[in-house]
Structure formats: structure tokens, C-alpha cells
Amino acid sequence: MADRIPAVEACGVCKWFSHRQWTGRGFRRETVAAVVDVNLRVEAGQIYGLLGLNGSGKSTLIRMMTTLLLPDRGQIWIFAKDVVRDRATVRRWLGRVSAEAGFFKKLTARENLAYAAGLYGLPRERVWRDAQSLLKRWDMRPSQLEVPMEELSRGQQQKVAIARALTLASRVLFLDEPTTGLDPRARREVQETIRAANEEWGLTIFLSTHDLAEARRLCHRVAVLHQGRLVAEGPPAELLAGGEDPDSAFHRLIAELR
Amino acid sequence: MAQLGREWQGAWAVARRNWDLVRRYLGWEVAFLLYNAISAVTIALIGETAPAAQRAQEVMYLTLGALVWNFLSIIFQEVASAVTWERWEGTIEVSFMAPLRRASYLLGTAGYAVGYGLVRTVAVLGAIRLFLPLHLPHPDWAGAVLVLVASVLPFVGMGLLGAVLPILSTERGTQATQVIQGVILLVSGVYYPVTVLPGWVRWLSALSPATYTLSLSRAAVLQGVPLAELWRPCLALAASGLMLVPLGLWVFHRGEHWAMRRGTLKRSG
After folding, report:
1. Is residue B88 part of a domain?
2. CA dihedral in degrees (A207, A211, A214, A220; nearest 10)?
3. Average of pLDDT values for A225-254?
4. Which of A151, A217, B167, B240 has most Cβ atoms within 10 angstroms of its Cβ?
5. Which candidate from A68, A98, A121 shows the least CB-CB separation from B260?
6. What's the gap in Å between the CA of B111 and the closest CA on chain A?
7. What's the predicted TM-score (pTM) here?
8. Which residues make beta-bridge pairs with A241?
9. Is residue B268 included in any domain, yes or no?
């Protein structure tokens, strides 16, 4: 029965942002809908892809799912725990990696990992050992973990970020465009890392991307977010025509929705 | 009990991270320390221009003001800049998504600030001693230490109140904390008695904990007022901290909630 609890569930989630705009005669408050009535369900153990163009609301949705932003309407549950009410419990289960790796750049990977272990109340040595063994498998030399993060390439920083998230997150990993800005080789390495995290660690992975090929390669299910609305959802093979160039397919999908 | 242990570990991790950053930005630390030390020496040297009979006392008055202000302003600034610093490094979402209570996070920041403030203040004192002989006829060191200990909490509380400003306004919050620090410097009698202030700002002196810290530490170090006479006002100072710290935590919590609603936690400019 416990297996049937979804890893992530969103029901009627909405988010609006408002800001004051100077009109020349006074301020006017403008409201923009970032996420509109999103309903989705991610089963435990899946890699779930969220596709969308820039500004479609992917990061906003992920921020709400990872307790960094409050929904204006609707609810989100992680393994049946409400992300607002049960924030403290939910935070123990989550890891998040975004396009910007989020490190103290002057500190080494070891120091950043030690800091993160402290924040999560985990044994520093265990986190270090686990992260080190992962990074070794991903072709990072031990000496690279002892230099300031700013001296590592972006691909290497992303690997450390994923290793950090894997060693801290016990149940769900949120990846917000983790391969953006990486060269093809680094992108492929990070993608293989994501697959390994899912297959070997059994983590549920929620991956946002605007790279359709990436979604097709990695995800069990994908959803398309367009102007804040979830407009399509299903297995990648159903949504994307076989043999079609990924970029063309994505633009076709969006055009159909318009 | 396990939860308490995790919170303590988290607070320690924050303090440790800040020390690690100090080591990595050592060049900047040395530059700032030199600037602080030179400012303090410059201010203390003004005392040398006083008539001979009052010179020693004037030097000590200014030196004490410079040292106490150095210590208190570091506590305020480090606590108030916690959010700004995380934003600048791009780590705020990593730190604030962790399952650590915000109070523990801020406790780690405050603990580091006190330790860091002490180290810097001792270094500044060393620099002043290179330039000036310090005459202390009958200081009450126990009283002076008590005053400083009692002053830590109110300044941590004020720092917490200041820390919410960068959350509320990414653009102007940090500037606002600088303005608050400047106002405290102006009205607290750091380098002159508050009686010289015009009447329309003097009421602010009564609100600033630094006013009491400075007058009590001068009473202990310059006039040798014994501990027996100092403990009551020190208790009042500490009590103000016991009110300001929970108030600061509450305000910070409300500010963070507001930022999570508005989506301003991450924005960097």
C-alpha cells in the first residue's frame, strides 16, 4: 500500500507574481500568472520530465515543490506530506540542483559538502565518503575536490552538486535544468549521472529541461508546461513522434497548443 | 534530543563555514583589519591634542569608544549581512532549503560574529598600543567583561532585525542596514557624550543599547566603578537582549515567509 503513495503530487497549484510598475502618472500593480492550476502525479522511482520554454514556469513550480516558494492556491505533497505544513519533514527528503550550482566558490568541494552535511545533521565523514566515491566514478580526481569550486569547470561543479544532492536527499531529487550551459560531453556525463542516480539509488527524479532529446533519453514520463499551464502529459514516446528532430517536435507541440 | 543535536550541528556548520570563508578571503580580511586599526588609531590620536592634564583620559575615552564600537558593529554587521552574503555567493536556496531551523542558522551566524568580533577587536587594540601608551589607573576588568557579555544579546537582536531588511528589499535592504549602523554610531556616544547631540535626536540615544554599553564600560574601565554597582544596569542590558532576540527571530521568520510568498528570496538585484 505504501508503494502506491506518489512521490510528488500537485493539485490545483497556482502562483502569481505582482510588481509595481511606474506608469508616468503613478504606480500600477501588475500581476503575472506564473503557474496556473497545475495537477500532476509522480510515482516513486520514476524520472519525471517537465518540459517548457524559458519563462514557462518550470523553476517556479520546482521552487514551490522544494519549499522555497509558497503556492498561492492548491497543494503539493511529497510522499503524502504537505510541503507547506510539513516543511521540516519534507526538507529532509529533498535534494535540488539548479543550473547555477549554488556553492561557496572560494571553498573546496570537501568544505562545501561538510557545510551541507552540517545543515542536514548528517555525519560529515559519511557524506564525504559517499560523495567521494560517486565523484570518483564520474571521473573526478580526489585532488579536484580539494581546490576552490571556482577552479572547477561547470560540468565538474554540476557533478559535485548532484553528488551533494544525492548524499543529502533520501527520497526525491529535483533537477532544474541541470545541463543548461554545459558542453555536449559534460551534458552527456551529467545525464548518465542522473540515470545512475535513479537506477542505482532508487531516487525519484523530477527533471525540468527545455531539451527534448534529454527528456526522451532519460524520462519515464514527461509533462509540458506552457505559460504556466500543464498542457500535455504522458510517456515520451506518446508525446513525441518517432524519428522527429527533438527541437522541431517541441516547437510543433507548443504550436499545436497555441 | 537527537533533533537538538542536529540543530547544534547545523549552527556549528554555519559558524565553521564563515571561518573557512575568512581563511579563503584572507587578503580582504587583512585589508579590512588594517583599515579598522588605522581608523581606531587615528581616532585615539585625536586625544593627544587635549590639554596635558586631560590627555591620558581623553585618549582612553576615545580608545574605549573605538574598541567597543568595533566589537559591537561587527556583531551587528555580521548578523545583519547573513542574507546578503548568501545571496552574493548564490547559496541562499541551498542554505534555506535545508532542514535546519532558522533560529539555529542565525545562532551559528551570531556565535561566529561574537568570536570574529573579539579577534578583530583584540587585533585593533594591539595596533593602538603600538602608537599610544594606554593609562588605566584603576580599571575594573570584571565589570568591563560583564558589560560586554551583557551587550552581546541586544546587538545580536538588533542584527536579526537588520537581517530581515535584505530579505524584504533585495535592492535597498543592505543599504538600509548600513544606515541603521550609522545612526547607532551617531547617537550612542561612541566618541563623545550624548549630551552634545541636539535635543531632537537625543531620544534615539536612550533607545540604543550601545549607549548603555559605552557608558557602563567607561565607568568600569576609566572610573573603576565596581562590579557591585554595575550588575543591575548590566542585567537591564541583557534583559533588553532577551526581548530583542526573540523579536528579531520573529521578524526574520515573518520576513522570510513574506519573501517565500513574493518570490524574492533568490533575486539578487
Report:
1. yes
2. 50
3. 76
4. B167
5. A68
6. 16
7. 0.89
8. none
9. no
**Structural domains of chain B, count:** 1
Residue at B209: amino acid letter: P
How many secondary structure helices (H) and strands (E) does chain B include?
11, 0
Question: Can you tell me the mean pLDDT for A42-61?
Answer: 92
B49 in any annotated domain: yes
Determine, yes or no, domain membership for B269. Answer: no
Residue of A nearest to B15 (CA): A115
A-B CB pairs within 8 A amount to 95
A135, A159 contact by CB (below 8 A): yes
| Locus of grid cell 510522499 | A79
- Residue A16's DSSP bridge partners are A33
What percentage of residues in chain A have a pLDDT greater than 90?
Answer: 54
Q: Is the pLDDT of residue B47 over 50?
A: yes
ipTM score for this prediction: 0.88
Distance CA(B103)–CA(B14), nearest Å, equals 12
Range of the domain at B30: 2-262
| Interface residues on A facing B, Cβ-Cβ cutoff 8 A | 15, 17, 60, 63, 66-70, 72, 88-89, 91-92, 94, 96, 98, 100, 102-107, 111, 114-121, 148
Give me the pLDDT at residue A255, please.
72
